[in-house]
Amino acid sequence: MRIREVICQLLRNPTVLHRTASSQDAVLVRIRTDSGLEGIGEADSQPEVVKAIIDAPYSHNIACGLRELLVGENALETDRLWQKMLRRTMYFGRSSVTITAMAAIDMALWDLKGKHFNEPIHRLLGGKQHDRIQAYASALFGRDRDETKRIAERWRGAGYRAIKLGWEPMGPCPKLDEELVRGAREGMGDDGIVLIDAGCVWDARTALQRAHCFADYRIGWLEEPLRSDDVDGYRWLRDRSPVPIAGGEQECGRESWRPLIDRHALDIYQLDLARNGFTEANYIRQRVEEIGARLCNHCYTSPVTVAASLHWLSTCRDVFLFEDSVDDSPLRHELTHERVQATEGFIHVPDGPGLGVTLNEEFIAAHLVAESGRRESASPVNSPNFASRRSTSVRGASAAT
Would you kindly state where each structural domain of the chain is located, as residue ranges? Predict the structure, then answer.
């Protein structure tokens, strides 16, 4: 099964707000083969940069665009193709956005592999250990205690018994920080699970003070209190914190994860399939399970990555929660024909071939963005000549909660 085309599609909601949420635009990778099958993947990164990495022409042997490395290759050889991409992008890869572009390709290749063998990806990864997983509603803080309480009440009323709230305005003011956590606890009730995402805002000593304060509200974890590269700080904090410390959503590939795992720096390791892909995620799962820590997915993008996350997380031994973005975004809910979201607080693992989701081509045609920055007209979506874009409209921050 040889790769015939590697296509990037850049999608964008009609309105993009200045906020920390990565479900406002998307980059899809579609890999088509000479057998007629198509695999789909997604990167959670800066869409235009991902597209540039995939589309880039040959420069020299360790500075290649990814498409050139893949066309003509056997799509089933996922491990070898990962190594080829890693080797041939050494001068501009090794971490961060290049790995996210590789992750989208890897996701699409595993989708193809599942479709080729008519099996769900979780079976190809070794077999799922869970048919469904308790989901937590993942959302942003309100402006204050009262608004945060209302947000928590809304999602508790929708059937979630766990919620994570994060990012702005947490950070500068100790009193407001405590009020935000108090509002989340009040909204979820005494028996609900409350998770707090600080958004990389403190030094280690300040984070420890907040952890002691938040422990009074029985939070399930404190996520990303420090900047991502402060591995020593995370190890110091984890050893002293009265609440579990979570992190890792920004890490891309095994070399990025290695210091956190080797130092036992976290209690919960949060891996994003749209930044790592299945090939690396399977390796990282084994490493984290070896040290006796826990795994959770990170996911704040489209149902493509939600489905990928379910396939991977269902194979993990000690699964306890699944991040389920409740962002009110068309990309989150309408990109695929299947709605991949929790009902009554639990989310079910897809069992269809590959990822088990199918793209909504009408939605894609309506949200595809051309190079001029305007959304494309509904041209035939099966054409290989999808236009790229250089958006001129306002962009919000793309990091996820």
Answer: 3-118+357-367, 123-348
